[in-house]
Design goal:
Layout lengths: L1 H12 L8 H39 L5 H29 L7 H19 L1 H21 L5 H50 L1
Helix pairs in contact: 2-3, 2-6, 3-4, 3-5, 4-5, 4-6
Keywords: Membrane, Transmembrane, Transmembrane helix
Length: about 200
């Protein structure tokens, strides 16, 4: 087993020098930047769709308690704040022309990476707490209509989902984002080096 680990370490330490032209790297980077933009637009659209759906709940259900309206309001406000943050990150990436100014776009990518790090770390906990408060207010009235077993099940499923999103899902998203943005930054650093050599 020790030989396998040594072979694996040797293999991972071995770097193959792949020479790509700046145009080929730029083409690859363009595809990845477009994918990043598309993913951002899909996230924003999903957040806006959830705002619309949550806003329609009071139209179809007549709440008796102010807490339900407060819960819906807090939830909508929280989602809108994060939609604005996501939109600002999208604008940051989309307004920079990476084909004409790779160095400037590289700086933009580094700012974007920092923003995403902040979003998934400190701001994420604000988001989770605010959504939790909104859900607690919303469920205060709703739970009265269910039997005790259903109340417990609904609370456990909600808590389980939030714990899952805050731990496993969040870590997977952070790791994937870090890898994608890191590779993109690396490509633009190589592109910048090749442009500077010319």
């Amino acid at each position: 087993m020790q030989e396998f680990d040594q072979l694996k370490a040797l293999w991972q330490g071995h770097e193959v020098e792949v020479k790509l032209t700046a145009d080929e790297m730029l083409r690859q980077a363009k595809k990845e930047v477009n994918s990043l933009k598309t993913r951002s637009v899909m996230n924003i659209a999903g957040m806006l769709a959830s705002v619309v759906i949550i806003a329609l709940i009071p139209a179809f259900y007549d709440f008796q308690s102010w807490t339900s309206y407060a819960g819906v309001g807090i939830t909508i406000f929280t989602i809108l704040i994060f939609t604005v943050i996501l939109f600002n990150d999208y604008r940051l990436i989309s307004r920079s022309n990476y084909t004409q100014h790779p160095n400037r776009f590289l700086d933009t990518l580094k700012v974007y990476q920092l923003n995403r790090f902040r979003l998934y770390n400190s701001l994420y906990w604000f988001y989770t707490v605010a959504l939790s408060v909104g859900i607690v207010f919303y469920l205060y009235e709703i739970l009265d209509y269910f039997p005790l077993v259903m109340q417990a099940a609904l609370i456990l499923v909600t808590l389980g989902w939030m714990v899952f999103c805050s731990t496993i899902l969040r870590k997977a998203v952070i790791r994937r984002e870090r890898e994608r943005i890191g590779l993109l930054i690396e490509k633009f650093e190589r592109i910048s080096e090749q442009f500077n050599e010319k």
